[in-house]
## 1
Amino acid sequence: MSDTPEETTSDADEATLDAMSAISDPEVERLEAAVAGLARGALILKLSPKRTALHKEKLRRLAHDVKPIVMVGRGGLSDGLIAAIRRGLLDHELIKVKLLDAAPVSREAFALWVHEKTKADAIAWVGRTVIFYQKHPEKPKIHLPG
C-alpha cells in the first residue's frame, strides 16, 4: 500500500472535462490559424463586411452601457453557447459577450467562430469583451444611417 492518495475523478470534474471538449482542439486551432497574422482592422472588416465606419461608430456608442449577456468560460465553444448568442441577438440585436480568463480561445478566434455560426457582425472588442450586432429579421430596434 502506498502513502500517496489515489487520484479520483468526481462527477463535477468529468462534467468540466466534457464541457472543455465541446469543440475539438483542431477546430480551435483552425480558428486561431485563420486569425493569426491579420491586423485588428483587417479582421474587423472580415467579420463585419456590410458595416460602414459610421455604422460601427453608432453601434459602439450604443453598446457602451450594455452589459455582457453571455460569458464564455472553461466550457469553451459549444452548441449551447451559440444558442444563447442567437437568442440574445434576436432579443436585443446588439450584445456583448465576455470571454473569461479560463476561455480556451482568443477573442479574435471566438469572434470568427460566432460570425461563421450566426452571420452576426463582430463590431469591436474591448479587452476580452466582444460586441456583436445582427439586425432583427422582422422588427429591427436599431436603425443605422444610410
## 2
Amino acid sequence: MKQVVCAAFLRNGKILLARRAPGEHLAGFWELPGGKVEADETLAQALSRELLEELGVKARVGAELTRSIYHYERGSVELIALTTEFDGEVGHLSVHDAVQWCSRGALANLPIAPADIPLLDSILA
C-alpha cells in the first residue's frame, strides 16, 4: 500500500485545497496538496519535498492530524494529513491548475477527491 502525505494548511478557519489539472489523475477534483512518500523519507520530508515541487512552497511541517485508507480501482493508498504552515503565496503549480482557501461550508460546492473527504471531515470537525 502506498503512503501519501497531505498538507493541512489552516488559516482563519479556512483550509487550502488544490484542483488537479486536466490530464492528471482525478482532473478537476479538489484535494489536500501532497504526494507519495519515497522509501528513504520521513513523512515530513516527503511532504516538504512534494509541496516545493508541486506548489513552490517552503513549508513548515508539523504533527500528524489524521490518516485514512482509501481503495481506488488501481490500488489502495494510506493518506496521512500533517499540520503545515507557510508564509507568503503559492509560487507555482505543476500538477494542479488552481488553489483556493476554503471554509467548511464552501466544500459542499466543490468536487472533492473521494480519498480526501474523510481527512477533511476529521480536520475540520
## 3
Amino acid sequence: MAINPLDLLKNLKEVQQSLGNMQEKMKNIVVTGTAGGDMVKIEMNGGFEILTVKIAPEVINPDDPQMLEDLVKAAFTAATSKIKDKMKDTISPLAGNMNIPPEFMGT
C-alpha cells in the first residue's frame, strides 16, 4: 500500500496535537520494574526518569557487587520494557484514528 505524503501533511496539525496529548499522558504513567523476587525495585515514569530505587538489605553483599549490579540492571530493563509497552498502547489508537498504515508505524 502506497503512502500519500500529502494526506499525511493534511493531518499534521492533528498529529501534533495528538502527540502533545500523548506526551502529557506518558508523564503521568508510572511503572515498577523488579528483579530478584522483588528484592530490587525501580519506579520509572513515562519520561524514562527513575523516581525511586529500592534495594532489600539482604542483596547487598560487599563480596558480590556483580550480583547487585545485575539485579539493578534487570529491574531497570523491566521498567523500561513496561514503559515501551505503555507507549505502544498509547500510540496505537492514535495511529488508527489518523488512518496511518501499520507498516508506517513499524508494526
## 4
Amino acid sequence: MSQEEAISHLRIQEYLDDVSGLDIPHSYAQWYNVDVAALLNGSKILGHEIDHDSGASLIFLQRSAMLCCPESGRIHHYPKHLLHCFVDDNRANFQEADGILLRAELFSISPTEEQLCWECCCRSELEVPEAQSRVARWLSWLNT
C-alpha cells in the first residue's frame, strides 16, 4: 500500500470515527458504517464536518463535496465549481442581527430540492474564532 493510499484510508477512518461519536439512532449509524463507508472506499477525503444536531455530515473531496443525510438516507453530491461561501459579520450591528454575531454559509447553485446550505452561526464572541477557522478551511478548499 502506498503512502497516499494509507493516508486516504486514515482520513476515511477518522471520518467514520467522528460519525460513530454522534448521538444518533442505530439505523443512522448503520447507514454510515455500511452505505457511506462503501461509497467512500477508495476516495480521497480532504476534510469533513459533522452537524451534531442533525447527524448530517459534509465531506470535502478534491473536486466536490458530499452531504450525507442519515434521516433521509440520501447522499448529495455537489461539484466544487457550483459552491460558494457567504459570511455575514454582524458584530458592528449586533442589535439588528437577531442575536447572531457571525453567520457563515457554504451553499450551492443547484435545483431547489438539491441545494446545499451548510451553515455555522455564532451567538457569542467566544465562538467567533472557531467559526472563522471553519470558514478559512472552506475558502482554502474552494480555492484549490
